[in-house]
Design brief:
The protein is an all-alpha fold. The chain folds into two domains: about 1-160, Tetracycline Repressor, domain 2 (Orthogonal Bundle), CATH 1.10.357.140; about 160-303. The protein is built from 13 helices and no strands.
Length: about 300
């Protein structure tokens, strides 16, 4: 009988941070603090976390032979034998059924996105991850589906240039993940790595990093100016009247530039892109994210 702690490790709760993308719809439309929308988005977040964990279990089952050759992944519960494959499979299927049933009870659009998300994870675990560049495209699509899930739950739509930003950032992170894996472990620990070369992944990182920055800059440029009120409006009218109609969201662009540069530095110099969710511990990335969040919050919710 396996221990609950072993199961929790296999469910990879540290990777649930990816599902925070579901809050994008209410964050960028100014409804983050609306109790009803926040509540339904949080329910969706929990459902996506359960679906993600179900897919992680199946992925580890499918990868068990390769994980046992990996210096770090061989310690995972399934690869190490701490969590029996039969038990992991049963838990995974149960999580899939429960999550999809819960999504169906919320609304049909959200259920459809969750179903596509689940099928994509299954396809990735058993097929797509073995065939470049489908593996990278699948990872990016999963991030996009998380964002669309927030739209389906709330009815708020994300601007198209922000959607492109999510797509290109996902491709950027996925390319960095493959590059770090290739440099650190070689081609034997993952079949797809045999069809990648360092130069190709360097090119991907350059393309997608540039596309992310341009798309995000276009999003901030096309966004409507904030509705100033109270003392801020009075101050600007009295001292800087021409600044009222400026694209204030563009003050967040420098933080995106800094974040992309730092992440690229971690990938190229330290090969730390293999586990993107763990790079959040990097103090420079944390400051970049906090600065970006503060700028977004100030423009949308304070001004």
């Amino acid at each position: 009988m396996f221990k609950i702690k072993v199961l929790l490790i296999a469910l990879r709760p540290y990777q649930w941070i990816k599902n925070l993308a579901i809050y994008s719809a209410i964050l960028f439309t100014g409804h983050l603090f609306d109790e009803n929308y926040f509540f339904i988005s949080t329910i969706g977040f929990v459902i996506l976390c359960l679906l993600s964990s179900a897919s992680y279990l199946l992925n580890d089952i499918a990868d068990v032979s390769h994980d046992r050759l990996h210096p770090a992944k061989k310690k995972r519960p399934i690869a190490s034998g701490q969590l029996p494959i039969d038990s992991a499979f049963q838990i995974s299927i149960s999580l899939f059924i429960f999550s999809l049933a819960a999504a169906f009870l919320i609304n049909q659009s959200f259920f459809l996105i969750c179903l596509i998300f689940a099928l994509l994870q299954l396809a990735y675990s058993f097929f797509l991850k073995k065939h470049p560049p489908l593996d990278i495209l699948a990872i990016a699509t999963s991030f996009l589906l998380r964002t669309f899930a927030g739209e389906a739950l709330t009815g708020f739509h994300i601007p198209i240039w922000l959607v492109f930003s999510v797509i290109f950032l996902s491709l950027f992170i996925a390319s960095g993940k493959r590059r770090s894996e290739l440099i650190k472990e070689g081609q034997e620990t993952r079949p797809a790595l045999k069809q990648y070369r360092q130069e190709l992944l360097n090119s991907y990182l350059s393309i997608f990093g540039t596309a992310t920055l341009i798309s995000y800059a276009l999003f901030t440029f096309t966004a409507s100016p904030p509705d100033f009120g109270g003392k801020i409006l009075s101050f600007l009218l009295a001292n800087y009247p021409k600044t009222i109609d400026r694209k204030w969201l563009m003050i967040s662009v420098p933080f995106v530039i800094t974040g992309l540069m730092r992440y690229a530095q971690l990938v190229f110099l330290a090969q730390e892109g293999e586990a993107p969710e763990k790079t959040i511990k990097d103090p420079y990335l944390v400051l970049s994210v906090l600065g970006w969040g503060a700028a977004i919050f100030a423009v949308i919710y304070v001004f």
